Predict the structure.
Amino acid sequence: MTLDGWILILVFIALVAAIARPLGLYLEAVFAARRTLLSAVLAPVEDSFYRLAGVKADAEQDWKEYALAILAFSLVCTLALYGLLRVQGALPLNPQAFAGVAPNIAMNTAVSFVTNTNWQAYAGESTMSHLTQMAGLTVQNFLSAAVGIAVAIAFARGFARRGASTIGNFWVDMTRATIYVLLPISILLALIFIALGMPQTLAGALPATTLEGASQDIAVGPVASQIAIKMLGTNGGGFFNANAAHPFENTGPIVNLIQMLSIFAIGAGLTITFGRMVGDERQGWALLAAMGALFLIGTSVAYWAEAQASPALIAAGVEPSAPNMEGKETRFGAAASALFAAITTAASCGAVNAMHDSFSALGGMVPLTNILAGEVIVGGVGAGFYGILVFAILTIFVAGLMVGRTPAYLGKKIEARDVKLAMLAILASPLAILIGTALAASTEWGRAGVQDAGPHGFTEMAYAFASAAGNNGSAFGGLTATNTFYTYAQAAAMLIGRFLVIVPALAIAGNLAAKPVAPASAGAFPTTGPLFIGLLAFIIVIVGALTFFPALALGPLAEATADRLF
């Protein structure tokens, strides 16, 4: 490990902390319908959307109506994207003349992008037309991220309101998230990326002459616009198959840093938004501190593991003091690769600038563990925030049992219904991960796609279903996931991981919004200090350990032990 590597990690954390408050305040103003710097331009646009859709901005929904609106909207988006993928060969803006996508891949991709997973069982530059990339995938990058933000704001209203029967209006929240937050920031990021060398063109490919004198076609297209929202919306779906390791998607260290910051920006800002909405900003900082502590631990382990050569490389004659550079870009190095891997899996983004399959056993376990923790270490845009609040409810319940008091969070009593719904949300993703991995490991269908035998092959299967159910979308590698089993099984895992968390979260929000706020007593458990932060982080770790330790023992831990022994 080097000083430069640690400086990069610490500078990144400091910049995220600096971004969180101003962005959090802006988000709070947007969803409180207060005027912002962009209101003069965007308010008329917002109003025109409501008129066209027949939506009354001041008409609110209860949690059931809010949930049904999300489910109906997601269904329509899935069907529309599936149709576009199937017929893209007959549509314009297809300079490569790509045919329609196969039914199982089209279904998997449609579900993937609508659920904010962005798992890609295809190579973008050799499968998707420019129209599909722009009107299909990029549009869903915006909309799926906006749905996550809307749910996060609705959940926060559950704590902020008292005696209320409604938690907002989904159509209004989604519209504001898109036009006031995601769209303007993405335009700014895209312009920065273009200035730093990222392509943005409708051309299909550029001819080039290699150093050996041969000719080669280099794929290009509307890259910068997709990469901007890919990172900001924690989508992760790349324009190219190599994702953020491709030089056109990630042109150098400065762009790499900007992309890492944009992955965490909104997720971190939403914690401050929550604090402002409930009238105590310290509540938001406490949640962000718990996220930050878990993130720093995971990043440190990944960097330590990748800063040393693997036993296999040493046996092949690599200098033992050299870092593990297999599957990594030399322009980024071990530190930036380990940091990016920790960020993209902590934030449910799924973008990758290195091959996780080439990480050491313990280094590769960190991205997997981040996903298995419930994608709450900042997490996906919106999803990480309501995910960690679900864990906060469980933490308060456990703390109440420990001291023999009725648990309460922000003056709202946490009762049996809240805890049952929280546990349903927490267990939905593990259910899909463990059942999916078990089916893959025990059937010829699942084993047919595995590249490696033994513990590493098991990790490849476990990571694939964790990435799907955790709505992360990153690929560990070494797994051919284009067969019928994986495309349909992973689509089911994506749906479970998305909507069996959203619906219970909204039910909790509706239940809490109807409750009165009880004044804090002398014996109330403080939720802004180190004790709460530590207990929250501990609960996240212990729930993950109890649920997934056997799977980790069969995969990365067994592989790490074998490396040391043999």
The radius of gyration is 23 Å. The beta strands are 205-209, 215-219, 408-409, 412-413. The mean pLDDT is 91. The chain has one domain: 3-207+216-565.
